[in-house]
Amino acid sequence: MTNAIKKHRSRLLASAAVVAAVTALALTLGAVVGCAPTTAAPLSEEEIAAADPMSQQILTWTADSECEICHKVEDASLQNADCPQASGHADLECVQCHTEESTLKTAHDGVAYNDVPADEATVVTVDPATCQDPACHGTLEEMAVKTADLDTFKDEKGKVQNPHEYESNEQHDAHQPVCTDCHKIHSEELQKDAMMWCAQCHHKGVFQCGTCHELRERAV
Fold this sequence. Notes:
- This protein has helices at residues 3-33, 45-51, 72-77, 84-87, 94-97, 101-107, 128-131, 140-146, 170-174, 179-182, 190-198.
- The protein is mainly α.
């Protein structure tokens, strides 16, 4: 047998040994950790109920209910410094702002503990009069005085708008905003939320009237 054949045979044997070692290691690991995870089939209502008997329990809402059991996102926002509207109200109970108890009872009628809560705590349960109580924020007129020098609320052309004071005109007088139109308390995006409300009419992104169509005097 020539040296070349011997060397070639040695390389083949070495390669076979490596393959065998890797295969054995793979089999060993497979026995230890099992197969790769697969997507589990969703549990049936019966399986969920068996695992957690409270999951199908129907909620009876009262003013003393622990809202945070279901509304975890809203509860977390009360401790979130990046959400100043919510964290500024962290010392209040939910029902001190969400005062419309009859609406809350209707909204929770037939709701079970396992149901996914609404995306947002409904603002229709917040009475603007609660926000404007003298013990809280005061009237819009009083708030307008407090924000008279605020220059962060501006349109795309840089025009500054006092968010609590509006020029009297036909559209503004017919559609006066309420607190919850702009203040989504559990949202971090006050500026964005407020602009979205304004954009219902100011859809060009500017506050100045006459920016959509050139204003011309009508012929007499």
